[in-house]
Amino acid sequence: MKRRHLLSLAGLTAGSCLIPAMIARRIQDVCIGASQPLILAPENASTLIYAVESWGGYELHLGNPNDEPDYPTLRDFIEDRGFDPNDDDSLREYVIEWRGYEEDFDEEQEGAIVGLKQDLDGLIDDRERDYWMEWDMELREGTLPKAFHYLSELPLINAKSSNGLSLGQLDFIQGDRPGSNLTYVRAEDTATLACLQHRLNELNEGVSIIIDT
After folding, report:
1. Of 12, 68, 103, 176, whose CB is crowded by the most CB atoms within 10 A?
2. What pLDDT does 116 receive?
3. Is residue 129 part of a domain?
4. What would the pLDDT profile of 147-171 be if each residue is shown by its tens digit?
5. C-alpha distances in Å from residue 39, one per residue of 27, 92, 139, 144, 177
6. pLDDT for 179
7. Which one-letter DSSP state was computed for residue 110?
8. Is 17 part of any domain?
9. Tell me, what's the pLDDT at 38?
């Protein structure tokens, strides 16, 4: 009976990825036997996934996690919340809901609306930035959730049965504790990363996994 070697996926994308015997043996020998990484990435990869060591495993980032976040403009932030930055009435509704303004505007608050309109093409700061960092960054705009959404949309699963020898586990996590918005993918070890790289190669994704310890 042939032994089946699998990359187990848990969470949003549940199932298994079957690893060919020759590749599986090499992953076992190098990653498990010799405790060394084995990333067989394509040349001139167009996409980089950073595997950052954390708590005995690796968290996956789509793009360099050390890069400064791409903060949106105030205009984009307002539009994303369903308000029209080009309409004064809509801006009034926005500042009532988001900046704690009273519904009965006085002259000073009307002047603040004028200042808000002048800042529309600048980057968000203060209250808007705090909200964006807590929600947007952790749910979709950060390098962690970007890796989550990218990988969860790929057909990583190619085995109908999970019976076999597991070479690693990839966990898709949405909120790792009560009150957390953090959305990310976690690989348990370098064997998991090697298996994932192999599957990405099979899918011709042009992705290179970079291990950052």
Report:
1. 12
2. 87
3. no
4. 999 999 999 998 777 777 888 999 9
5. 9, 54, 28, 20, 31
6. 66
7. H
8. yes
9. 85
178 by Cβ neighbours in 10 Å (0-12 / 13-18 / 19+) ranks as exposed
- Dihedral sign (CA 74, 79, 83, 89): positive
Handedness of CA 92, 96, 100, 105 (dihedral sign): positive
pLDDT at 46: 93
Which of the listed residues 94, 123, 152 is the one where a domain comes to its end? 123
172 and 200 part of one domain: yes
Distance CA 103, CA 24 (A): 65
Residue 132 belongs to a domain = no
Angle at 22 between CA 19 and CA 27, to 5 degrees: 70
Note the pLDDT of residue 2: 59
Largest Cα separation within the chain, whole Å, is: 82
Enumerate residues 6+ apart whose C-beta is below 8 A from 41.
Answer: 197, 201, 207, 208, 209
Task: Indicate the Cα dihedral angle 155, 57, 67, 139, nearest 10°.
Answer: 60
Q: Exposed e or buried b for every residue in 49-73, given b needs 16+ CB within 10 A?
A: bbbbeeeebbbbbbbeeeeeeebbe
What are the backbone dihedrals phi and psi of residue 23, each rounded to the nearest 5 degrees, phi first? -65, -40
| Residue 60 belongs to some domain of the structure | yes
Q: Report how many domains make up the chain.
A: 2
- Tell me what pLDDT residue 66 has: 92
Q: What residues of the chain score a pLDDT lower than 50?
A: 1
Residues in the chain: 213
